[in-house]
Amino acid sequence: MLDGPDAPLGRRALDPARDVVGSRRSLELTLPADPTKALLTEVTDVFHATVNDVLLTAVALAVQDWSRRRDRPAATVLVDVEGHGREEEAVGGVDLSRTVGWFTSVHPVRLDPGAVEWPDLWSGGPEAGRALKRIKEQLAAVPDHGLGYGLLRYLNPRTGEALSGLPVPQIGFNHLGRFGTPTGSGDWAPAYEIGGFTGGADPGLPLAHALEVNTLVREGEGAEPTLVAEWSWAAELFTAAEVEDLGATWFRVLRALADHARRPESGGHSPSDIPLVSLSQDEIDRLQEELALEGDL
């Protein structure tokens, strides 16, 4: 059995013969409109971050807290990040304006929020911003949003052999974006009641991950947007109460990030925002402090 950060999160490692789609359980949780709005606007704006940066920061911190409360090591969190794969800027001359749907890319990323002062984090203090900047930079370091990982892992013999020996993520994450309810009597609308987030699949298909979280922002007619998350898991590896605890912890981290973003001293740039110069996070922070004292920021 693995020890350390890659030890099984559940009761054992994922077994493709036992942990199949037919044994999957799921739980849908909804974040209210006010913190959802803060995450989509205030948090992303003041930290010059994407929604994925914010949500994955919360995943890393939530898993770390969930694990430490169970006396399990979780210094880093290995996650498979799924994306739409429409990275036109990564391939010059490609025009995707006449294509429909996702191309879907999946790549692993190891998230490390560092040592966390939990009381400060839960109060929305500077610890929340520090963790977000750290995770944001780790995600920004992935070339082309992970578009080339599949080629390196499965089609290049040299790199494929090296990558095949690395730990496999136990967690899958996918943010699907915004889904609105159309006005009027349109013929097309999301059918949330059929298949949930994950759609249909053969019951005997092995699960890709022990635990998955799929999210979207649901926009109803006349209602404020809300963040909806579907947590799904292998039934033999976790109880519903354990996953509900993890989901609630994730929401708690998101609320802490929203609270922090409303503080006047929050936010700021990180190294990936300034690609033309080589500055560390400490150097950027000192520069911003000096400019703020001079009244230029």
TrEMBL record:
Task: Give the source's domain of life in one word.
Answer: Bacteria
Q: Which residues form a coiled coil?
A: none
Annotated InterPro entries: Condensation_dom, NRPS_synth
* Bilayer-crossing regions: none
The UniProt record lists the Condensation domain at: 16-178
Please give the PANTHER family that the UniProt record associates with this protein. ENZYME, PUTATIVE (JCVI)-RELATED (PTHR45398:SF1), PTHR45398
Q: What is this protein called?
A: Condensation domain-containing protein
